[in-house]
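re: ur msg from earlier - yeah i can do the iron/sulfur cluster complex, just paste it... oh wait u already did. ok heres what im feeding in:
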Amino acid sequence: MSTTHYLRERLAELRGPATSPRPLDARALAALAANPGCRRRALLDAAGIDKGAVAQVLGAPAPFGQSQFAFARGHAFEARVKAEECAELLRLLGAPEDSGALLPDLSAAGPEGRTARTRLALAEATSAGRWTLLDHPLLALDVAGSAAYLEPDAVVVAPDGSWTVVEVKSFPILDGSADPVKVGAAARQAAVYVLALERLAGLLEETTGPVRVSHDVLLVCPKDFSNLPTAQFVDVRKQLSVTRRQLTRLTRIEEIAAELPDGTTFDLRWSEDGRTPTRPAPELAAAVEAVPAAYSPECLAACELSFHCRDRSRACGSVESLGRGLRGELGTLTTVEAVLSAALGTDAAGAETADPAVAALRRAAVLRAEALTAGGASCH
Ligand code: SF4
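and the outut:
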């Protein structure tokens, strides 16, 4: 049995035999790249486990993800942008009206079939040397030994053979500028697509010759308060290099899976109508806790399990729950208890220490005590 086949079987076992995998999208991959030390997220995402449903069963659902309203609005806007054979989108890309752009059919069975179809369409379009728009192509990217399938809103091949990612978002561009937080999130997501396209370009090089994958992604948004589309090119070079570096730091999925205790499963055991998970919470919590996590407050904006991981991190007094910056400054002190003992000089180091973190904590404790005494004195 090949490693890939074995891993696929193992991940299906962890997910539960009757559960379909949730595809790992670019948004999830960008979040994973932002926290490469979290084995829990890496494993659950690779196995296609619904982390939102897991959080529900654990009694810690996080208000995370798009609302139904935002989702519907996004779909309606994208349909508008792509109406009349993507004429408006091609115009925003700078294609002339009579470009005769091609819109190849990318439908095929299953993710492998769709990625193969996308690959063929990209190779043909690059050799043809004319405007071609691939609507919702499917790209594969190896992530820590497991295949992730990614679906950009569109990829455009220009007559010079270059490839450009298009992302359609429903947040507005007001007076020429958009919310930088939202643009940043879109850029991180688009960088994942660019990375997958660069890998594909490398594989196709023998057929197509060298291909330039543009690092400027076209971001299409509603203009001001209207529903009219407008677009901006966003340079994603920085996000691309961060994503590339972080993804290589992920522990291989088979290694994480191999360390699980025998019999571990994340199967939610859905009821017959597929609506209610019946897995007892303590059992599921034990399975989740069997995989090491790397919680930080940034998880709150990026992961469905954030409330659960935050509770566990606080319960064991871990300094990670205070933020990565502070965690870095505390050096070898990993718990709140150890930090307090160090500050008060009741730890093993006693009064003498060469540890700069401990020295800084003691200094801060002295200053605090002085401030409290002065405050107390002034009250009399
Ligand atoms: S919330 Fe938990 S599982 Fe999700 S990334 Fe953070 S530590 Fe990992």
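cool cool. The radius of gyration is 25 Å. ping me if u need the other ligands too
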